[in-house]
Amino acid sequence: MQIDLIQQALREEGLDGWLFFDHHQRDPIAYRVLGFSPEQHVTRRWYYLIPAIGEPRGLGHQIEPSVLAELPGEKRLYAGWKRQKECLAELLAGLGRVAMQYSPECAVPYVATVDGGTLELVRGCGVEVVTSANLVQLFEARWSSEALASHREARARVDEIRRAAFAGVADALRAGRETNEFDVQQFIREQFRLRGLVTDHGPIVAVNANAANPHYEPSRERFAPIQAGDLLLIDLWAKLDRPGSVFYDITWTGYCGTEPPPAMDNVFGVVARARDAAIERVVRAAESGETLAGYQVDDAARGVIEEAGFGEFFFHRTGHSIGEEVHGNGANMDNYETHDARKIIPNTGFSVEPGIYLADFGIRSEVNVYRGESHAEVTGEKQERLLRLL
Fold first, then answer.
1. Can you give 33-75 as a three-state secondary structure string?
2. Is residue 383 within 8 Å of 233, Cβ to Cβ?
3. What DSSP string describes 225-250?
């Protein structure tokens, strides 16, 4: 835990403190930011306050007096609920605005771990509770130089696998061999294993109407054949199998033939222009020093798709934060599912992945963007046209 940096961030945000709370280890953010792992199972409520100025202090239960032992500062203990309220009020005495893992209207659900009753309890101590979303991003979403290097290495390996997967489908089509979504998915999973990559689930391999379901995944029991004339979408994400690595997450599409129908080509063109509009918005802001929020990037992509008449067929956010989890705790490119007003801060990465999902096919084009100190870049290849698989 970097107390000096946390306190500096609190002062910059105009906050009096950051109050961490947990019960039964429901808030993994608290343990990661504070940098501790209790030796015993946590069955009682604890609180830990880092004030903007001064020494941290904690409050734990007498049954589990050592839960906060690893952390600096004075710790007090309570047992009964009345004493808990008294000690909590003393812990927060003199403070005005305090951050917690809370999000107004659950706009950022990734950080909304504090229950409503605890919010009532804390507010009853006379403090204003504000969201810790910006603070969490500072300490959870930024990539180290080693993390960025791991992302680039994952990119190289995943891109090779992506090319091999599409090439395998093309070979099967030309040879008249049967292939299907599940077989291609399992090929990708095996390649991940062989190349030292790990993932949590997926990948998505989808043809035609299945590709119009953004979270479709084939299974041993449910899959479609891949045949000439099909639209094929592959969405794959993985990271190096070593601590501290971050994900690389992309989506490409291809046509199982020599020349796609004009409708498919048109939709791909709209999606690609929307993707590029979002990327350009980020690059311009990074180079000029403009403060840019996630919702503004979503607006840039969504505006292109709406202007082309496909607005109702783009029904998810434009992108998500990427970190050690494929969906990280930084700003999302979102003004649709939520209004994400978090700033896109330096040294963070995220996806840009607009899509259009019609009744008989769907097309998404996904790239990863890294926002450095004064620049932004797409970290991998950009698909410029539908792949031709025959």
1. HHCCCCCCCCCCCEEEEEECCCCCEEEEECCCCCCCCCCCCEE
2. no
3. B--TT-EEEEEEEEEESSTT---EEE
In the chain, where the domains are located: 3-140, 145-388
CA 32 to chain centre: 16
List of long-range contacts for 211-219, beta carbons under 8 Å, 24+ apart: 211/253, 211/357, 211/361, 211/362, 211/363, 212/357, 212/358, 212/359, 212/360, 212/361, 212/362, 213/357, 213/362, 214/316, 214/355, 214/357, 214/362, 214/364, 217/185, 218/180, 218/181, 218/182, 218/185, 219/182
Q: Decide if 327 contacts 320 (C-beta within 8 A).
A: yes
CA dihedral (100, 101, 104, 107) positive or negative: positive
* Domain 145-388: CATH superfamily, name plus number: Creatinase/methionine aminopeptidase superfamily (3.90.230.10)
Q: Which residue has the tokens 């917690």?
A: 100
In 132-230, at which residue ranges do the beta strands (DSSP E only) sit? 197-198, 204-207
Sign of the torsion angle spanned by Cα atoms 193, 198, 200, 206: negative
* Domain 3-140 coded CATH 3.40.109.10: no
CA dihedral (240, 136, 284, 334) positive or negative: positive
**Dihedral angle sign, alpha carbons of residues 220, 241, 196, 172:** positive
Q: What's the predicted TM-score (pTM) here?
A: 0.93
390 residues of the chain, pLDDT tens digit each: 789 999 999 999 999 999 999 999 999 999 999 999 988 889 999 999 999 999 999 999 999 999 999 999 999 999 999 999 999 999 999 999 999 999 999 988 989 999 999 999 999 999 999 999 999 999 999 999 999 999 999 999 999 999 999 999 999 999 999 999 999 999 999 999 999 999 999 999 999 999 999 999 999 999 999 999 999 999 999 999 999 999 999 999 999 999 999 999 999 999 999 999 999 999 999 999 999 999 999 999 999 999 999 999 999 999 999 999 999 999 999 999 999 999 999 999 999 999 999 999 999 999 999 999 999 999 999 999 999 999
Phi, psi of 132 (to 5 degrees): -95, 10
Query: For residue 229, which of 14, 390, 22 has the smallest C-alpha distance?
Result: 390
Alpha helices in 224-381 (DSSP H): 262-288, 294-307
